[in-house]
Amino acid sequence: MLALPFSIVPSILWLLFFVHQDKHREKMKDVVKVFFWGIIIALPVVLVEVGFQEYVFAPFAALIFSELAYSFIGISFVEEFAKYLVVRFRAMPYKFFDEPQDAMVYMIASALGFSAIENFVYALNFAGSASEVLQISIFRGVSATFLHVVASGTLGYFLALALETPKERRKFFWVGLALATLLHGVYNNFLMDLGHKILNTQDTGGLFGALTIATLLIISGIIIIIGINKLTRIRFSTQSNTTTQNYEQK
């Protein structure tokens, strides 16, 4: 019973924090809508990930880089693209999506919704007691949850650039998606091992892991905040407004 509130609270706290970084603050009902769509998209994402694992990567399981490729493509890429689809269809077509920084704000909202349900499932599977639920929730609240923010926030920044410069829209979008996938994949493959050491307190590697994760996340968080603040100083140009209007619906 404790898994659900403990898993969702970190995402809500991060959501409130980043919404308040936006100087032209969005209506909470719009942000919450995208947040819940981030939760909903998690189910089809699981099905796609299982499909990739069973039918695409399983035949190559004996190859040395098969597991690594699945982690980057079958998990990281799929999840980042899914969170983008939430924004593409549940934010961009609407009139409230009217400023460059909205791309970052709503990508982060989508990411936090996705992370909330991911943390809930993780706690159900790996926590055997209330104290373990709390421990996992705290750790993932400041690591995995924030990783989703950093990766999707990065994509959101490049999405804003893509909308602002329609002639280079594809380039900026794919660069952003590639960077988001890379960040996500690096966390999944390298930092998660450090995280397990922290949770299990196996050795002094746990302390090193904690310091590494904390340093990387602090630096990444500062970059995300700078990105939001930078985008708040510009408005969509007439040309980019035409681009966003192509998505609009009433």
UniProtKB/TrEMBL annotation:
A Pfam short name: PrsW-protease
Compartments it resides in: Cell membrane
The keyword Protease belongs to this UniProt entry's keyword annotation: yes
Entry GO MF terms: peptidase activity
Annotated keywords: Cell membrane, Hydrolase, Membrane, Protease, Transmembrane, Transmembrane helix
Family: Belongs to the protease PrsW family.
Membrane topology classification: Multi-pass membrane protein
Main location as per UniProt: membrane
Biological process annotations from GO: proteolysis
Gene Ontology CC, one term: plasma membrane
Superkingdom of this protein's organism: Bacteria
Ranges that cross the membrane: 6-22, 34-52, 58-82, 103-124, 136-160, 172-187, 207-228
Protein name, UniProt field: Protease PrsW
